[in-house]
Design brief:
The complex is a heterodimer of chains A (328) and B (266). With 328 residues, chain A is α/β, with parallel strands linked by helices. Chain A contains eleven helices and 13 strands. In chain A, α7 links the parallel β6 and β7. Chain A is globular. Chain B contains twelve helices and two strands. Chain B has one domain. The longest helix of chain B is centred in the middle third of the chain and has 32 residues. In chain B, a hairpin with a 2-residue loop joins β1 and β2. Helix content of chain B is 74%, strand content 2%. Classes of the chains: A alpha/beta (328), B mainly alpha (266). Chains A and B meet through α2, α3, β5 and α4 of A and α1 and α5 of B.
Chain lengths: 328, 266
């Protein structure tokens, strides 16, 4: 039986900050301003097993970063419990840091002026590895991440794709059990994104590293994560397999209709079905499944058109996520 | 042991970094020559006009005292304030807080490593230059000079780091610490003897320099005074007391500050 890497129970985080009243004098604003309270995370609970690959998604300001920061011990929860690998991050931040790796897509932890080898050595010493362990692990990571061609170059001369590979490699120097990634593919081109995703999958499979990822990139979620937790307004609104996202959030299906010869007229469609594409050699319609079933739709479409081929499919993940964000 | 190995690694890495990019060393040397050199030149003429003696002090004592101040400043320990402020303002602090180390200790070693190479070169070359041009005053030839200089240098480094770290940690509350930094920095400069050498201070200013943490963080400038022979243990004692007091203040401030972290709204 797999054990839990992360357990979150009824976790909440409130931020308070002073707000200046327009009608107050400067003295009151300085010494006794009004206090505004913002609930960033509101009573969330979930658990993640060792070796899982989980996407933690939500629109900007949903509470993703706040939750990640509480998982790593940077922020202190207002209430609730967090256990990461059996440790309480707010009490055992340093101890926990030895067992987790973090990658922030928009921040760098590498030494910019020196070759990548120096960053690997530097973090190796920081994580209390022996010289021999650093040497061996550097070799492993160089092979795994194909760093050989640029490992001796100053970090600031690396391309963004190379730098992100290096960031992930450095965060794995101490063989963490969990890696938390905050938008790791931001700004990367399609090739670099694919390379990075492949590598993350590889370390998950070969080293059993649990992956906890936040990203606005649908490809990251679709390709990397087999489970998705959706958060909005500080509340977990869904926790489900990534493959079930579409059916859980989108009540639309799509049908491509290919004509026997060619479409010449486009008659009105029954309620719940609407045209998306009207071409002579192809029609695409959307079906609102809680108004009309697929079976019923197909029957009616076959009555209207003479068809050679039909293709029924779900919305793509990007559409699904847009629906989730807009709907909440 | 782990802390020592890590500190050693930071210092080695940063010295390597400086060797790759010697611009910082050249800048430090030019600044030192410009600031200290101009002041020494002015004081040289003042002493010359007064037959080589002002307030019973020779130019040699003043020159070495001021040189100690400026050489110490090339360590750039004061930069810890702005470094902490930048981390807080940019949110980069989250990267450091994910590492298995004490943030303040890391910053301290980083600051030491950043300035050590410049300091060593400036101190060695500057000392040789002063030795060859104006010689060394008799106060620097007594037996306790060198060991007490090293002791007070260590105390000055620790106290400077703590005082400026307190200013830096204020960024968790007020974000822009520049006004506070300016006040503290000017107090350290004046009471440390960067413009007017300690030996020429009026009594009331000397007392402030002696009993304030700002003055105490620059006690190395006192080591060439004639009074050092008899008063060194009092000054080192004062320095130790300020290290303990300001250390406790920093500890409590930092404990509170950690709970105030806010990065990108979270």
């Amino acid at each position: 039986m797999k054990s839990d890497s992360i357990i979150v129970k009824n976790l909440s985080k409130k931020f308070t900050f002073p707000v200046k009243g327009a009608s107050y004098g400067w003295l009151k604003n300085l010494f006794s301003p009004d206090i505004k309270e913002v609930v960033a995370v509101n009573d969330i609970s979930f658990s993640i097993e060792r070796g899982e690959r989980v996407a933690f998604i939500g629109p900007n300001g949903a509470g993703k970063s706040t939750t990640i920061k509480m998982l790593t011990g940077i922020l202190f929860p207002t209430s609730g419990q967090v256990s990461v690998l059996g440790l309480d991050p707010s009490k055992d931040r340093k101890k926990l840091a030895y067992q987790i790796g973090t990658v922030f897509g928009q921040r760098s932890q590498l030494l910019p002026n020196l070759p990548l080898t120096d960053s690997l050595e530097f973090f190796g010493v920081m994580y209390d590895l022996t010289d021999e362990q650093i040497k061996n692990r550097t070799k492993e990571l160089t092979d795994l991440f194909d760093l050989g061609s640029f490992i001796d170059q100053p970090v600031r001369k690396l391309s963004l794709g190379q730098r992100m590979r290096a960031e992930v490699a450095v965060s794995l120097i101490h063989k963490p059990k969990i890696i938390l990634l905050d938008e790791p593919t931001i700004g990367l081109d399609v090739v670099a994104k694919k390379t990075l995703r492949d590598l993350l999958l590889k370390i998950n499979k070969e080293e059993g590293v649990t992956i906890f990822l936040t990203s606005h990139d649908v490809g990251d979620i679709e390709f990397l994560c087999d489970r998705t937790i959706v958060i909005n307004h500080g509340v977990v609104i869904k926790d489900l397999p990534t493959s079930d996202l579409a059916s859980a959030f989108v009540y639309e299906k799509y049908i491509d209709l290919i004509p026997l010869e060619r479409f010449t007229n486009f008659p009105a469609l029954p309620e719940g079905i609407k045209y998306l594409v009207k071409e002579q050699n192809k029609i695409t319609v959307s079906i609102i499944v809680n108004k009309i079933s697929i079976k019923e739709s197909l029957k009616k479409l076959l009555d209207i058109f003479e068809l050679e081929d039909i293709d029924v499919y779900d919305a793509d993940l990007e559409t699904v996520i847009r629906h989730i964000y807009e709907g909440n | 042991m782990k802390e020592i190995r890590f500190a050693d690694k930071i210092i080695r890495i940063l010295i390597k970094d400086r060797l790759h990019y010697p611009g910082r060393l050249i800048t430090d040397t030019v600044i030192l020559i410009a600031r200290c050199g101009i002041l020494l030149l002015l004081y040289y003429y003042v002493f010359k006009l007064n037959n080589g003696l002002v307030n019973g002090v020779t130019f040699g004592v003043v020159a070495w005292s001021m040189f100690f101040y400026f050489a110490f400043s090339t360590l750039r320990l004061r930069d810890i304030s702005r470094s902490i402020m930048r981390d807080v303002q940019t949110g980069n602090i989250e990267v450091f807080f994910n590492k298995p180390m004490s943030y303040l200790l890391y910053k301290t070693w980083w600051q030491v490593g950043s300035g050590l190479y410049s300091f060593l070169l400036v101190a060695i070359i500057g000392s040789l230059g002063l030795f060859l041009t104006i010689g060394i005053p008799s106060t620097m030839t007594i037996g306790i000079f060198l060991p007490t200089l090293l002791l007070v240098f260590l105390g000055a480094s620790i106290l400077t780091i703590i005082v400026y770290a307190i200013v830096g940690v204020l960024a968790f509350w007020i974000e822009d610490i520049n006004p506070v930094f300016w006040l503290v920095d000017k107090a350290v400069m004046i009471l440390g003897g960067s413009y007017l050498p300690i030996a020429l201070f009026p009594v009331f200013l000397y007392k402030i320099a002696l009993y304030s943490p700002f003055g105490a963080s620059q006690f190395i400038t006192h080591t060439v005074n004639t009074s050092w022979r008899s008063d060194w243990y009092i000054l080192i004692g004062i320095q130790a007391v300020w290290i303990i007091i300001s250390g406790v203040v920093l500890f409590f401030m930092y404990s509170k500050a950690k709970r105030r972290i806010s990065v990108n709204g979270g």
